[in-house]
Design a protein that fits this description.
alpha/beta, Alkaline Phosphatase, subunit A, 2 domains, eight-stranded mixed β-sheet, five-stranded antiparallel β-sheet, 15 helices, 13 strands, 19% strand
């Protein structure tokens, strides 16, 4: 038996007026998910433990079968694993986003966050800007590392796990009340604006109609993680396919294989076909039993508040990921199970994550159900299947 998870990050949502009162998942044209829903088990799963922050870190740990209460030590340390940073026991890792704050004459504290992703800046452009601040700020205590797109890393030697606010939680808000209490971190953020706002690359971006990537934003502090091996836990050889350092870091920590797909960027126009083919190739190998395909685009469109593009992201996932993977595995004659789910909701109305339960769908090629169901939030809530501890869904999925 082969196992494939297709995870649409932030795919779940609430009804939206401009979508005729439907959620993006309900509104999107998803013929493959519709086909599978008629033969699958559908229900709700709570991926966020009560009292924990509804992040992709805790939620994806749960989806991979790791109890966040036991294994979560912060988001950034997981990303450090992906980047290849060997953290010391005394290190603190922090996410270092390059964001867009308002370009006005107001003091830094009175500016607002316009865009947490700086128009989904390319890694190449972001590296130029990160190096500009690195030249000024880096020393033996603070080390900067380039990640992917707007997502980068700061390692703070002998630091502390300070309380920091994710930028996507405070879009359009004045930042004064959300700045770090640590004076060094706050000073680097303030001074980064002076370095970046009129940097030649940002002048060029503004001329092209793009948002300036004009400020650092620190968040997600944590200590070195210690995940147990996915193979030892499940008996399966696992493979991760994602453009996001967080997911690749979880995979590194769990001793899973990480497949890099050229052109995979975590945005709406990522290399869907490349991800699908990478999954197919892995599953046809004797060295792989389980593939986790992570798609960031629905979450990014939720943060941007674009219902239209969130619908597109879901349709792309259906047509360009689920269809080719399903058809290739079916044509091969191999027995397989497919799990489709979000990690958490990212509702258009609030543009950030919520801890609500999400719909899941399990298709088994050896046990096709006569379910006639729908893969939507609304239908999933009617089936009577509700998994309260999200990390236990993996056992349900891989059980024979």
């Amino acid at each position: 038996m082969k196992y494939v998870v297709v995870l649409g990050d932030g795919m779940a949502d609430l009804p939206i007026e401009e979508l005729q009162g439907k959620t993006p998942l309900e509104y999107a044209k998803t013929p493959m998910m519709d086909k599978l829903a008629a033969m699958s088990e559908i229900g709700l799963v709570h991926t966020i433990p009560e009292g924990m922050s509804p992040g992709s870190d805790t939620a994806n740990l749960a989806a991979l079968g790791y109890n966040p209460r036991q294994y979560y030590t912060g988001r950034s340390p997981l990303e450090a694993l992906s980047i290849g940073v060997d953290m010391k026991a005394t290190d603190i890792a922090l996410r270092c986003n390059i964001v867009t704050v308002s370009d006005d004459e107001l003091p830094y504290e009175q500016k607002t966050i316009i865009d947490h992703s700086s128009d989904e800046i390319s890694t190449e452009d972001a590296a130029v800007l990160l190096n500009a601040v690195k030249e000024v700020f880096e020393n033996e205590t603070y080390k900067f590392y380039v990640g992917t797109s707007y997502r980068h890393l700061l390692i703070w030697d002998k630091g502390e796990v300070v309380s920091l606010v994710p930028p996507h939680d405070i879009l359009t808000k004045v930042i004064a009340d959300y700045l770090p209490t640590d004076e060094v971190l706050k000073d680097m953020m303030k001074r980064s604006y002076d370095i970046l706002n009129n940097h030649p690359l940002n002048v060029k971006r503004a001329a092209e109609g793009k948002n300036k990537a004009n400020s650092l934003w620190f968040w997600g502090a944590g200590t070195r993680p210690a995940l147990s091996s996915f193979k030892e836990k499940t008996g399966l050889n696992g493979t991760m396919i994602s453009a996001v350092d967080l997911l690749k870091g979880i995979a590194v920590g769990a001793n899973m294989t990480v497949v890099e797909v050229e052109g995979a960027n975590g945005g709406l126009h990522t290399n869907y076909e490349g991800k699908a083919q990478a999954a197919i190739d892995a599953l046809k190998s004797d060295d792989c039993d389980y593939v986790y395909i992570h798609l960031e685009a629905p979450d990014e469109m939720g943060h941007q508040g674009s219902a239209t593009n969130k619908v597109k992201a879901i349709e792309f996932l259906d047509e360009r990921i689920i269809r080719p993977v399903y058809e290739a595995l079916s044509a091969s004659g191999m027995e397989f199970k497919m799990l489709v789910m979000p990690d958490h909701p990212t509702p258009i109305c609030c543009r950030t994550h919520t801890p609500d339960a999400v719909p899941f769908m399990i298709y088994d090629s050896t046990n096709k159900k006569d379910a006639n169901g729908e893969y939507t939030e609304k239908y999933a809530a009617t089936t009577g299947i509700e998994i309260m501890e999200g990390y236990t869904l993996l056992d349900r999925f891989i059980s024979k």
